[in-house]
Specification:
α1 packs antiparallel against α5. Strands 2-1-5-4-3 form a five-stranded antiparallel beta sheet, sandwiched between helices. It has helices spanning about 1-55, 65-80, 110-115, 155-160, 160-205, 215-220, 225-255, 275-280, 290-295, and strands spanning about 80-85, 90-95, 120-125, 130-140, 145-155, 265, 270-275. The protein is of the alpha+beta class. It has nine helices and seven strands, in the order ααββαβββααααββαα.
């Protein structure tokens, strides 16, 4: 029973350890996947923004319609939001809204950085679309001077859609790994605990008085060096049991040869030995291990 409790507790502890380890792997993998996918999205938007900035620089400012048509088409093809902002921060085109109704973007971090000549990316909440967006702002240059900013963006949820798919696949994989690991762990522990159970059973039989008890060679090698020590103790127990049995037979012969009634009890008062004369005095006594007062109270 104690070995079963030890087995259950050990199995539970190791199973919890595996679960915690898989959870740590899951958390780390999610963070890593998200970062990698987000970087890929930023790189894709940056390349699109740079390509559009070159196209924008080639259009004449006098007729904005062809430029707006091109930007709108590119926005639909790439599934992005494209905005064109002048150097004063005014939105001159936006593929998702009315540019004339929008407030100044001059001090948006990505616009401010692009007007300074940098390619800037950020993830922040859009008040216009009411959702988190991935933004990349690219300066538009003519003759080496920044004349506008082309900003391309994509909803964060859309940008990380592949991340969500990878997350679900990772959950399924780790769940299967946990279940499979639990099954493998269970059978491995059964293999490890089987020799201990057999040794415990052998010791229990020896404690119950069975003399011919020993561990097999396979069990001894499996529990080395413990198996050898257990076999040595079992051998000593057999020798002691045989010696006690022999001494008991000699003592029984001795007391049976006397005319007095002999009664031998243990420290608890139970009868462990009586001679022939006492049985003649109490013929109704058929077995030993009774309390001696129960035996002597019976009428002869």
């Amino acid at each position: 029973m104690r070995l079963r409790k030890l087995f259950s507790r050990s199995f539970l502890v190791l199973l919890i350890f595996i679960l915690v380890l898989l959870l740590l792997i899951f958390i780390y993998s999610l963070q890593h996947f998200r970062q990698v996918i987000l970087e890929d999205q930023v790189q894709e938007l940056t390349e699109l923004g740079l390509a559009l900035s070159v196209e924008i620089a080639g259009y004449e400012a006098a007729d904005p319609l062809p430029l707006q048509k091109m930007l709108f088409t590119q926005a639909r093809i790439s599934r992005t939001r494209v905005s064109l902002i002048d150097t004063a921060g005014r939105v001159s085109f936006d593929s998702e809204g009315q540019a004339e109704e929008m407030e100044s973007h001059r001090y948006r971090p990505e616009i401010n950085a692009a007007l300074a000549g940098e390619v800037y990316s950020t993830v922040r909440f859009s008040d216009t679309l009411n959702k988190k967006m991935v933004y990349v702002a690219v300066p538009v240059r003519r003759a080496g001077e920044v004349v506008a900013v082309c900003r391309v963006s994509r909803p964060l949820q859309l940008a990380v859609r592949s991340f969500l798919k990878a997350r679900n696949q990772l959950i399924c994989f780790l769940l299967l790994l946990f279940l499979g690991g639990g099954v493998v762990l269970f059978f491995l522990m059964k293999i490890i605990f089987r020799p201990l159970e057999q040794a415990s059973s052998a010791l229990a039989r020896a404690a119950a008085g069975e003399e011919e008890v020993s561990l097999g060679p396979f069990l001894v090698s499996g529990l080395a060096p413990l198996g050898g020590h257990i076999n040595y103790l079992l051998e000593k127990n057999r020798e002691l049991s045989r010696a006690l049995k022999s001494d008991r037979e000699v003592f029984q012969t001795f007391i049976d040869s006397t005319e007095e009634g002999w009664l031998l009890v243990d420290e608890n008062g139970r009868v462990i030995l009586m001679n022939r004369r006492l049985r003649e005095m109490f013929p109704e006594v058929t077995q030993e291990s009774e309390f001696f007062w129960q035996t002597l109270r019976r009428p002869g």
